[in-house]
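Hey, I was hoping to borrow your eyes for a little while. There's a protein on my desk that I can't quite get my head around. The fold is given in discrete form, as structure tokens running alongside the sequence. I'd be grateful if you could look everything over and explain what you see. Here's the protein in full, and shout if anything looks odd to you:
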Amino acid sequence: MDTIKLTIDNKELAVQEGTTIYQAAKSAGIDIPVLCYMNLHDLGIECP
């Protein structure tokens, strides 16, 4: 997979293609408040 570069809160990150913004932020220690997060997209299930 390719590497994607992005910047969140002035922190430059490099993550694997397919990584969500939430996952990238979490891996960098950046807190993004969420009401619901479920990694079930591949199963066709969306977060209620």
In short: The chain is about 15% helix and 25% strand.
